[in-house]
Amino acid sequence: MKTRLSKIIQYILFPSIGIFIIWQLYKDQKADEIMQVLKNDMDFSWIGLSVLLGLLSHVSRALRWRILIEPVERKPRFSNTFWAVMTGYLANLVFPRMGEVSRCGVISKYEKMSFTRVVGTVVVERLSDLLMLILITFVVLFLQFDLFLVLLKNNVNTSAITNLLTSPVFYAIVVLLVVCVFVVIRYSSRIKFLRHVRNLWKKFSDGLGSFRKIKNVPAFIFHTLFIWTMYFLMIYVCFFSMDQTSVLTIDAGITILLTGSLGMLAPVQGGIGPWHFMVIATLKLYGISADAAGVFALVVHAAQNSMIIVVGLIAFLVLPFINKTTDEA
């Protein structure tokens, strides 16, 4: 029953929410008008450059992940790491939040590594990205504080957050989690299932500890900065694809990087819907018309995800072949 409910939520509820948001955003735009903009007003060479920059960010992510895996296991082959990253992105388009698990499974299978340890390295990687997102938030607050306040006021229900933090149910859940952690720690050596959990946690902790054991810290920092620079440029170069958005500045690019990233946090396949909503809302604050903002968000998101689909499908074909060849050699 729980498994069925989980599948319904993943495969039906979340995609439906994304589709509903897309419908709300584009219901007033006619398909023929969008097609006219795409044919006459869109310079797709900038979109192509954006896709290339996105691919470079994925290459850099694979290289950074190798740096984290090496101390707790051994350095995996770049080919397996890169294709694993791309299968993970593809999985996210089908199952929300399954990309990290999928790419860990690929590396564990083809590199003969501990799945749990590899998952720990991905958690460290995501924490690094979270720190970058926090840094970008401070930059946006410094550069565009008034605009950011308007965006929050227009789109965030602060009363709902207040109600959550004052709800006794919220604190009851927190207490329950603390009790569960205490039980696992206190009785982990006496109960077989808890011993298994403890062993898994140890391997997971080994993965988490990969950050302390990094052999090339400058390279890790470089790739982290490079990845997010590419994310920014992926948005910024697309400004030049349309006359209306070509007047936008670097400040606008950084702000949309932040709001778009927040949209991607929603548990919806590929951020479909929430990402569009956040980007369109931000562009409108910069004076871009709703129609132009809608086309911009539609094209940029579609281009990046088309690249992920193509390269991700290639990964599924290539991975068994290159590893079979290696095994035979």
Automatic annotation (TrEMBL):
Transmembrane segments: 9-26, 46-67, 130-152, 164-185, 220-242, 248-268, 275-300, 306-323
InterPro entries: L-PG_synthase/AglD
Superkingdom to which the source organism belongs: Bacteria
Entries under Pfam families matching the protein: LPG_synthase_TM
Its membrane topology: Multi-pass membrane protein
Keywords (A to Z) from UniProt: Cell membrane, Membrane, Transmembrane, Transmembrane helix
Subcellular localization(s) per the UniProt record: Cell membrane
Name of the protein: Flippase-like domain-containing protein
Species of the source: Carboxylicivirga linearis
